[in-house]
Design brief:
heterodimer; A: five-stranded antiparallel beta sheet; 20 strands; about 45% strand; elongated; B: mainly beta
């Protein structure tokens, strides 16, 4: 028996919106400590990792670890049938080939349930080494979304350079070029708008804007985002969800000229 | 031109 109750459907809806355009099918690994998901896009250029801790749920019970293979598009269609403030209970009996979605309105006067067929997904998990990053930047997630969207008007890739002057995002395209520079915030008036830059070493790498735009679909999950860069490692873009867990993305760099 | 790398070149398979 597996059972997990989300206090609000909205959180699960936001998570799905942030993942479903990168990954079609994924295994939700449910263990005593919580739910995790790790999946790459078809091109193996990006990877999503999700952690939802058991203690972040209203109710969480796993008798035996379960791997729920789910088509995210189907799950997203079902989740659209939930009101944002409905509670969502996912449950699966041992040996069952479906997972049940139970939606309950806040005053318990409406209940609906959907059963989704589970899939056998042959997924390969990757060993992600604990990297020492050359630079770490924390900024408002809306700011990152804006930069990525603005620069996408001029080209396909962004060069991110971290130096003493700050962090610079540069795009070059057939019509011209553009850049945005962010500097470490000095005032602490509005900590939620602050930009923090920790540079251990200057670093510069290029990334496909197409993927960064998809990652920024997670901006509604978290007011702040962390991006971490190393010379010889994929970019890490991390959205923390308070005490519940996180949604992280890794992106392989573009190399050469 | 730039070449897109893949993650499998950086992360080991489990």
């Amino acid at each position: 028996m597996f059972e997990a109750r989300f206090p609000e459907a909205l959180l699960l809806k936001k998570i799905l919106e942030s993942v479903k355009d990168l990954v079609q099918d994924a295994n939700f690994e449910c263990t005593e400590s919580g739910i995790t998901l790790q999946a790459m896009d078809n091109a193996h250029v990006s990877l999503v990792t999700l952690l939802l801790r058991g203690e972040g749920f209203d109710l969480y019970r796993v008798d035996k670890p379960e791997s729920l293979g789910i088509n995210l598009n189907s799950m997203s269609k079902i989740m659209r049938c939930a009101a944002n403030n409905d509670t969502v209970t996912l449950d699966k009996l041992e040996g069952a080939d479906t997972v049940r979605f139970l939606f309950e309105s806040p005053n318990a006067d409406r209940m609906s349930e959907f059963h989704l067929k589970l899939m056998d997904i042959d997924s390969e998990t990757l060993e992600i080494p604990e990297s020492m990053y050359h630079a770490e930047i924390e900024l408002p997630s809306a700011e990152l979304r804006r930069i990525v969207s603005d620069l996408s008007t001029m080209g396909d890739s962004v060069r991110i350079s971290v130096s003493k002057e700050g962090v610079r995002f540069t795009v070059r395209g057939d019509e011209g070029s553009g850049s945005v520079i962010l500097r470490q915030s000095t005032g602490v008036d509005k900590p939620e708008e602050a930009i923090h830059i920790v540079m251990n070493e200057p670093v510069e790498q290029s990334f496909a804007l197409k993927y960064l735009n998809l990652f920024c679909k997670a901006a509604p999950l978290s007011a702040r985002v962390q991006i971490k860069l190393s010379k010889d490692a994929p970019l890490l873009v991390n959205f923390s969800m308070n005490n519940i867990g996180y949604l992280s993305y890794y992106l392989a760099p573009k190399i050469g000229d | 031109a730039q070449k897109q790398t893949t993650l499998t070149g950086y992360f080991g398979r489990n």
